[in-house]
TrEMBL record:
It comes from the Bacteria. This is enoyl-CoA hydratase. The lineage of its organism: Bacteria, Pseudomonadati, Pseudomonadota, Alphaproteobacteria, Hyphomicrobiales. Pfam families: ECH_1. Belongs to the enoyl-CoA hydratase/isomerase family. PANTHER family: ENOYL-COA HYDRATASE, MITOCHONDRIAL, ENOYL-COA HYDRATASE-RELATED.
Length: 257
């Protein structure tokens, strides 16, 4: 598959997608988002891939939705055409997606980082939802995912003032999992992705699905959901292998990667 706006490669069992519109700081246009969804779906369906990694450039993960492409849209273009309704491809992936973020992750850029499962940030990363400065609000889940990630106080602060958060603040707020020096961003993010890709896939899918259930259910329902999935993993050969390997003091040899 040849893409115009992203670069795609596989290293070991990690499927890597790099946003690649340097002239526009990786601004997200319709074409890029269609390619991104396609690439995520292809890796999700590929048995040789256990985890994905999404990144951008040193200067920008992505500077938001493409303002030039959307500036002249009318209400009916946006509402009638259901603008950005199909920009949720990453959130629909079953396999985990690690975001390696350097530079600007603004607007839609922050939103697609938040669709990923783990954000590893370079110390140069800047996160924000500056849409208010353009006379709109976030449109691909920013008000919802940011609020779930950092709570109401900081989400309101960012969404209503449009200010950016640096990587240290984003880590303190719970938006990012780890902050690393910019020079080692890809190495560190790859280590995380490779670690996940080296686990038993059914457990990885189950862990991701169960953590995500926490955002959609009450505590009691979520705990019940988790327990049922936990029980079901005892039907896998990898549960037998994982526990046997522990007892025998050796590395597990997973059957279902
Ligand atoms: N859309 C389209 N083009 C963009 C862009 C965007 N979101 N962000 C940057 N670019 C373009 C610039 O227009 C510029 O192009 P030209 O050279 O042709 O003029 C090029 O990328 C480089 O950008 P700058 O010269 O502005 O670079 P800078 O280093 O001075 O500033 C920046 C960087 C602070 C990120 C600044 O580019 C900026 O503020 N960008 C817009 C950020 C933004 O508002 N994002 C939210 C978009 S709305 C959204 O995302 C809605 C949603 O939820 C779906």
């Amino acid at each position: 598959m040849s893409y115009q706006n992203i670069l795609v490669e596989t290293k070991g069992r990690v499927g890597i997608i790099r946003l690649n519109r340097p002239q526009a700081l990786n601004a997200l246009n319709q074409a890029l988002m269609a390619e991104l969804t396609q690439a995520v779906q292809a890796f999700d369906a590929d048995d040789a891939v256990g985890c994905m990694l999404l990144t951008g450039s040193e200067k920008a993960f992505a500077a938001g939705a493409d303002i030039k492409e959307m500036a002249d849209k009318s209400f009916i273009d946006a509402y009638g055409g259901n603008f950005a309704a199909d920009w949720h491809g990453i959130a629909q992936a079953r396999k985990p997606v690690v975001a390696a973020v350097a530079g600007f992750a603004l607007g839609g850029g922050c939103e697609i980082a938040m669709q990923c499962d783990i954000i590893i940030a370079a110390d140069t990363a800047k996160f924000g939802q500056p849409e208010i400065k353009l006379g709109v609000i976030p449109g691909i889940g920013g008000t919802q995912r940011l609020t779930r990630a950092v709570g109401k106080a900081k989400a309101m602060d960012l969404v209503l003032t449009g200010r950016n958060m640096d990587a240290a603040e984003a880590e303190r707020a719970g938006l990012v999992a780890r902050v690393v020096p910019a020079a080692s961003l890809m190495d560190e993010a790859m280590k995380v992705a490779e670690t996940i890709a080296g686990m038993s896939l059914p457990s990885v899918l189950a862990g991701k699905e169960s953590v995500n259930a926490a955002f959609e259910s009450s505590l009691a329902e979520g705990v019940r959901f988790e327990r049922r999935i936990f029980h079901s993993l005892f039907a896998t050969e990898d549960q037998k292998e994982g526990m046997k390997a522990f007892v025998e003091k050796r590395k597990p040899d997973w059957k279902n990667k």
